[in-house]
Design brief:
By secondary structure, the chain is an alpha/beta fold. Helices cover 24% and strands 27% of the residues. It contains nine helices and 15 strands. The two termini are 17 Å apart.
Length: 379
């Protein structure tokens, strides 16, 4: 393992909320307060930003076990991602093989949410069964006891093609109760919602997450008929319910996002939802491209980094991953914000477009003090 000095970078520490020009020192895989000595390599980050590694809070990484699973390391390190959370690909029936075959064998720090429906999201040919009577509470509790370091929360999909309004409401309430017993949060997928979004939001607790917040399928969005963010959604945020922009291929609408953001309704979390239909291609492409879109929406870089590092770190109980404090494990991303023209699109297949002119481009990713990715012209 090499020791490093990262020089000349613009450094952002999300936990302190502070951007400054300074050097970063790495010794034996951890951040150090001072120069690690002559036996070190110098990384010149001139013209770059340096921050804790991105945390992608919504991915699908069960490659070989689910239709939508992609290679965890290949989808993470080139994107500056050092920690990722699989968003309920597995339910209770398939989780252990995911743990042993993917999580334990990946170099990226991989955590997971457990889908409350035991069958998981393993295929698009049929959806999960949300009958609350079939929720295997006993097995779910056993898994959380066995894998406390990797299972971070529960996941439920409340789409109209999965459940009726009555089933969705009953299953949601049971999932919230289970989350309360387990001491974890619940992530709720709302694309093409199966129930009234304001009623749904009213059931959620502080720390629970509504993902695909800017979706525009089915009968409802977070906006009312006058294109204002709905009162029930605003009240949920005031109570501490969180909103994940969570892009995906079919779960994001540019007009809904822009309208909400113009009213100050920024995402608490920005994740990718990377999977086989959006892996380095299409309207999603990668987390850096998703993050870049919010520069065009007018979010500050610091606020974007908070949504991609600080809030996810807090939700997984690893606030240290958003810190540059000496002694912290050296998970870092070095990136540029380059002037580059790009046209953003969404699920409407070109009907909605947004012209951008800045792009977040990772140059190097460091995980645990090891360089795990570098642009061919960097370093």
């Amino acid at each position: 393992m090499y020791n490093y000095v990262i020089k000349n970078g613009r450094v952002y520490d999300p936990l302190k909320g502070f951007m400054e020009n300074r050097d970063i020192y790495i010794e034996n895989g951890r951040l150090k307060e001072s120069f690690p000595g002559p036996e070190c390599q110098v990384i010149d980050a001139k013209g770059c930003y340096v921050a804790p590694g991105f945390i992608d809070y919504h991915v699908h990484y069960f490659k070989g076990g689910a239709e939508n699973g992609v290679n965890a390391d290949a989808a993470s390190f080139p994107c500056g991602v050092t920690t990722a959370v699989d968003a309920g690909t597995c339910g209770a029936s398939s989780y252990e093989i995911f743990q042993k075959a993917v999580i334990d064998r990946s170099d990226v720090r991989l955590l997971a949410q457990l889908l409350v429906a035991s069958g998981g999201q393993l295929t698009s040919r049929y959806t999960e069964n949300l009958d609350p009577e079939l929720m295997d509470v006993k097995r779910i509790k056993e898994l959380f006891c066995t894998y406390p370091n990797t299972l971070t929360g529960l996941k439920i999909r409340l789409s109209a093609n999965i459940a009726s309004p009555e089933t969705a409401k009953a299953s949601l309430k049971k999932a919230v109760e289970l989350g309360e017993e387990l001491g974890c949060n619940l992530v709720v997928h709302i694309t093409d919602p199966a129930m009234n979004l304001e009623k749904m939001a009213s059931i959620l607790r502080k720390g629970d997450v509504i993902c695909h917040a800017y979706q525009n399928k089915g009968k409802e969005t977070i906006l009312d008929r006058n294109k204002n963010v709905r009162e029930g959604i605003l009240r949920a945020r005031e109570r501490g319910v969180l909103f994940d922009a969570c892009n995906g291929k079919n779960n994001f609408d540019l007009k809904v996002a822009q309208t909400a953001i113009e009213q100050g309704f920024y995402p608490d979390i920005i994740s990718s939802d990377v999977n086989t239909v959006s892996y380095y291609q299409g309207v999603l492409h990668s987390l850096p491209r998703v993050l870049s879109k919010y520069l065009t929406f007018g979010m500050s870089l610091e606020r974007i980094l908070d949504a991609a590092v600080l809030m996810p770190a807090r939700l997984i109980g690893r606030e240290d991953l958003a810190s540059l404090k000496p002694g912290t494990e050296a998970d870092l991303v070095i990136f540029k914000v380059e002037e580059r023209e790009i046209t953003y699109r969404d699920w409407t297949d070109g009907i909605n477009e947004l012209k951008g002119h800045e792009m977040i481009v990772p140059q190097m990713t460091i995980k645990g003090g090891n360089v795990v990715y570098s642009q061919v012209y960097f370093g």
